[in-house]
Amino acid sequence: MTAYHELFADRFARLRIGSAGIRTPARRPVINPATGAAFASVPLAAPEHLESAVAAARAAFPAWRALPWEERQARLEGLAGRMAQARGELADLLTLEQGKPRHSAAAAEVDYAIGWLREVAGRRLADEVLEDAPQHRVEKSYVPLGVAGLIVPWNFPLCLAAWKFAPALITGNTVILKPSPYTPLTALRLAELAEDVLPPGVFTVLTGDDELGQWMVDHPGIAKISFTGSVATGRRVMAGAAAGLKRVTLELGGNDPAIVLPDADLDACIPKLFWGAFGNSGQWCVGIKRLYVHDDIYPQLLDGLVAYARGVRMGDGMDPASQLGPLQNARQYEKVLGILADCAERGLRIALGGGAALGPGYFVPVTIVDNPPDDSRVVAEEAFGPVLPVLRYRDFDDVVRRANDTEYGLGASIWGRDTALAEALADRLEAGTVWINEVYVHGVDFPFGGHKLSGLGVEHGAEGLAAYANLKIRMTAR
Predict the structure, then answer these.
(1) Per-residue pLDDT tens for 348-395?
(2) In 3-state terms, what secondary structure has residue 362?
(3) Residues acting as catalytic residues
(4) Does the reported pTM lie above 0.85?
(5) Enclosing H/E stretch for 242
(6) CATH fold of 3-252+454-477
């Protein structure tokens, strides 16, 4: 038994439902991806636990929705304060269960989630008078849906949880949050912190296997599902929600292109391109997945990207020197190795990396593939790992066609000094967000959603808040 296992053996022994602590007969181990070994275990919720959580959330809903917006804001700011007090512990848990470096990426994710919660707490859906005429007055308002079921993935367990629960709570809904079974600990700690500032039943975390997500989708007492994850699971969520016309928001996969124009400032953009592709070890939905580089600058950019990558250290996230961590789980590790095996079988040129790293854990070194064909797996599939195809292009019309030749449409980026050209190309890309000379920058007030199979609905902004509410029109005759 490892020291970490001894520390966490009984740390999260119970589900907190309402004001009760419940032990479950079944538990699931939590794996440290840097070692491949279990260091903790968590309760597995059964159908009866979901029933209890829904009952508690429904019971808490009338009083929570009736609170003035300012009171809900104060409660959420209180939760942000409790998270800030537990910042170091949350970052430790995040690194142990997810793998990202403790002193950079994990700490940044905790701070990001705290800041996001505070920012969203200050937003509101304002009532509006649509018409004030002699014959009638027409007013628009928003009312909360009820119980929101939030299903969060393993790549950004805390950040993406905050993206969902903050708007759900501030708009007057109660919440049942299901973290990924791979990364449940930060969510369970978050639930403990929430007990200090939120009434029982307002915010519940249930840990469980994949079946729990389906039970939530099927449950008639849950009014809304917000899901981030794969297209395959998103389809099942949408199909299940259709039976009860349950509201859904789906943020799914992406195979995001980046297009580097011939006039790009390589010194400025190479670091951003690297971290846009390889940050979080490539495990982010809107990371750069395909890098298209104009022929005129292709050799210089490829050489510069490889040189930059050689200076980045990958290792155990608890090592302060580590800048990148492992892949999060064995299943994802095997998928990425399968894509690298396809590169080897095709005889593709590997400019850097390739294969699995030595030692324990789910480490795959940063890998850059030099101009693979468009039908290779490394181009056509979303690797969701530290593997990047760098692709040549000559013609702008052709690169737009190739960039759009995917079933996904989450994000894209264009890099170059000629912003007029970049903006013209951006308008032709089939993506929910197109960044120019930047990537993966989000804001509380900027709606975020995907085109094509990358999702349904949006998060953030007024539109994201409205996704947790029903629109209501009141017309008064005079």
Answers:
(1) 999 999 977 777 999 999 999 999 999 999 999 999 999 999 999 999
(2) coil
(3) 251
(4) yes
(5) helix 231-242
(6) Aldehyde Dehydrogenase; Chain A, domain 1 (3.40.605)
